[in-house]
Amino acid sequence: MRNIALVTGASSGMGKEFVREISKKYKGLDEIWVVARRRERLRELKKEIIGTRVRILPLDLMKEESFERLKMVLAKEQPVVRILVNASGYGISGSFEHQTEEDAAGMIHLNCEALTRITYLVLPYLRRGSFIYQMASSAGFAPQPNFTVYAATKAYVKSFSIALRQELSYQGIRVIAVCPGPVKTEFFDRAYEQEEVKFYKKFVMAAPKKVVRKAIRDARKNKAVSVYGMTMKVIRVICKLLPGRWIAKIMGK
Ligand SMILES: NC(=O)C1=CN([C@@H]2O[C@H](COP(=O)(O)OP(=O)(O)OC[C@H]3O[C@@H](n4cnc5c(N)ncnc54)[C@H](OP(=O)(O)O)[C@@H]3O)[C@@H](O)[C@H]2O)C=CC1
Ligand SMILES: CC(=O)[C@H](N)C(=O)O
């Protein structure tokens, strides 16, 4: 029986960092399966990882055939998935009306639908003691004008993860919603292509390695949500205390 970890969004940012950390921190894994569109990036990562085999699955999770392919590979290999990390995702900032229809729908497609389908496909291969890391965001704590669709997708991921965690707790499978604030990755190149990254985001920008290490520690403590940094923890409490429409008003200004 082969024990594996499956990481989506592994070609950059937090997905890539998860692969690095998993290879060091989880003993007894035979393989790490890495998913993203950029094959070259995945090859570079494979070369870097020592001690655990890396299997490259160059898949576009916006395309139907990718799910068929993953389903087939899982059915053929019959692995035990010890860790699933859903880190593929993107965001586009700016007002809803100035966004392209493709992007507005695309964020929902990748951040919500693909993440849900991957979780569903992998579920039969998880066992007692397995972990699911879902990349949500602090953007999921409250509605965010000018990041409207993105924040809504992350509210979905957070809600989905917390409910699923409860459902799977009886099988001894742990689900954690990872909810960092701004993290220094390529995410911002695409998200803020049309405008400057907000100064307060630059101010609290975290290193991906620290966010991922904290997520792994929190998952081991069986936490439902992982939030990196004091600022984001305070923001989370504020978002719990104030009505969403107030937060939206403040953020909108
Ligand atoms: N950076 C931040 O501040 C924060 C990010 N997050 C969330 O964390 C997750 C990871 O983000 P981060 O690491 O920052 O971003 P990156 O842009 O660095 O990484 C995104 C990953 O998603 C993959 N991806 C994008 N589109 C597709 C697709 N169609 N099919 C398959 N894979 C795809 C990319 O690979 P490729 O292009 O090769 O396909 C890449 O590996 C996202 O869900 C993001 O929303 C949450 C909180 C904060
Ligand atoms: C990109 C993110 O998800 C981050 N939490 C932010 O709000 O900037």
From TrEMBL:
The entry's keywords: Oxidoreductase
EC number: 1.1.1.298, 1.1.1.381
CDD domains: SDR_c (cd05233)
Swiss-Prot/TrEMBL catalytic activity: 3-hydroxypropanoate + NADP(+) = 3-oxopropanoate + NADPH + H(+); L-allo-threonine + NADP(+) = aminoacetone + CO2 + NADPH
Signal peptide: none
Domain of life: Bacteria
Enzyme class of the recorded protein, top EC level: oxidoreductase
Family per record: Belongs to the short-chain dehydrogenases/reductases (SDR) family.
PANTHER family xrefs: NADP-DEPENDENT 3-HYDROXY ACID DEHYDROGENASE YDFG (PTHR43086:SF3), VERY-LONG-CHAIN 3-OXOOACYL-COA REDUCTASE (PTHR43086)
Name of the protein in its database record: NADP-dependent 3-hydroxy acid dehydrogenase YdfG
Natural source organism: Anaerostipes hadrus
